[in-house]
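My current task is to audit a protein record that another person submitted. Thanks in advance; the entry in question is below:
***
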Amino acid sequence: MKALIIVDIQNDFCPGGALAVKEGDSIIEGVNSIAKEYDLVITTQDWHPSNHGSFASQHEGAKPYDMGTLSGRPQVMWPDHCVQGTKGAQFHPQLNVKAVNFIKGTNPKADSYSGFFDDDGASTGLDEYLKEEDITEVEICGLATDYCVKYTALDALKCGYKTSVLSQLTKGVNQSPQDSQLSLKELEQAGITIR
């Protein structure tokens, strides 16, 4: 069986949000349309406490997009985003899918680009759930190509799923202009199908 994983289509990652992805909302109509074709649809949702350690605001002198460390691991310092209970953490109002949701990023000492695991290795429960549902193949779309989509796809492959990324239904942060394209190339080289 095959599942669609829709990564982080939340207000803060769409135009007007705290960590907006350029044209991030432009994929939503396509995601709504394709979601009807799957046995199971999963959404992931960044759900950070207000003191999350990936926020530049939590590190004296740090500015958004500076590089720093979090629990000894390299970390991009992000603007405060997807804070639990805020409008920014809610799904974009145009996203209209019937899905099982998995939240991530609740541990203030670990970031969580992947929908499967925090970067300290803690599971979100997604892998266990997909295996219980006899899912063997996943296709991934959402935001952002160069971070959460990328790491979700890499972890899906590591967990043993036949994995594809739907490149027309993703958009990237693109701190550097080629980041999304380089990420897709890296995923393809790892054995993930890019459609």
Notes: Helices lie at 28-34, 126-132, 145-158, 179-190. The first helix runs from residue 28 to 34.
